[in-house]
Design goal:
mainly alpha, Tetracycline Repressor, domain 2
C-alpha cells in the first residue's frame, strides 16, 4: 500500500489498475482488498454500495487524470490557430500511442472497456462513462473553438476526434502496439483543417 495515499485513494487507485488489466467483470472485491491491503470493513466504509460505487469512483478518478493530461499537452502548444490545433491533436495522439502501445503504462483505466461491458446492465456506470466522455469532448471542442471553428462544427469535430482516440486505444491494446494510434496522428492534418463559416462556405 502507498503510505502517502489515504485508504480511500488506495482503493480507487487499485480498482482503476485492476479494471484496466482485467476489465470490470474480471475483478472482484476480494481482488481489490487483497491487492490494496485495505481491510474489507474499510472498503465498505468508503463504498457501502460495493463494487459498482467503487467503479464509479475509479471512472471519475480516470476522468480527472485524463483531462489534466489533455490540457497539459494542448497547453504546450501556446500559439492559436489551425496550425497549433493540428500540432496539439497530433501531440496528444502520439502520446497515447506511447502509453497504450507495447511496454506503455496508461494512466487510469480505459473507460471505453468498462462502458462496453456495463452500458446495458448498470445505469450508474453508463452515466458515469457518458459524463466522462462529454467532459473530455468539451475540452476538445474548446480547442477547436479557439482555433476559429464555429460552435456546431467544433462540437461535431470534438466527437469525431474522441471516437478516433477511443477506437485507436482499443486497437492499440488489442494489437499490443501503438501503431494504430500513430496512423491516426499522421492523418489528423487531412481530417481537421477544413472549416465551415457561418454562411456554410468552406475555408482552409
Amino acid at each position: 500500500m502507498n503510505d502517502k495515499l489515504k485508504p480511500k485513494e488506495v482503493l480507487i487507485e487499485t480498482a482503476s489498475r485492476l479494471f484496466k488489466v482485467r476489465g470490470y467483470c474480471g475483478v472482484g472485491l476480494n481482488d481489490i482488498i487483497e491487492e490494496s491491503g485495505i481491510p474489507k470493513g474499510s472498503l465498505y466504509h468508503y463504498f457501502p454500495e460495493g463494487k459498482e460505487q467503487l467503479a464509479i469512483a475509479a471512472i471519475n478518478n480516470t476522468k480527472t487524470l485524463v483531462m489534466a493530461d489533455i490540457k497539459r499537452v494542448f497547453d504546450s502548444t501556446s500559439k492559436l490557430g489551425a496550425g497549433s490545433l493540428i500540432q496539439a491533436l497530433q501531440a496528444y495522439v502520439y502520446e497515447l500511442a506511447k502509453m497504450f502501445g507495447a511496454g506503455g503504462d496508461p494512466i487510469g483505466s480505459p473507460i471505453g472497456t468498462i462502458a462496453g461491458e456495463k452500458h446495458s446492465t448498470s445505469e450508474p456506470i453508463r452515466s458515469a462513462c457518458e459524463a466522462t466522455f462529454k467532459d473530455w469532448q468539451a475540452v476538445y471542442a474548446e480547442r477547436f473553438l479557439t482555433a476559429g471553428y464555429p460552435q456546431e462544427q467544433a462540437t461535431s469535430l470534438a466527437t469525431v476526434f474522441h471516437a478516433l482516440t477511443e477506437g485507436g486505444i482499443l486497437l492499440a491494446l488489442t494489437m499490443k502496439s501503438g501503431k494504430p494510434l500513430e496512423a491516426i496522428a499522421e492523418q489528423i492534418p487531412s481530417l481537421f483543417t477544413e472549416k465551415i463559416d457561418k454562411n456554410n462556405h468552406t475555408t482552409y
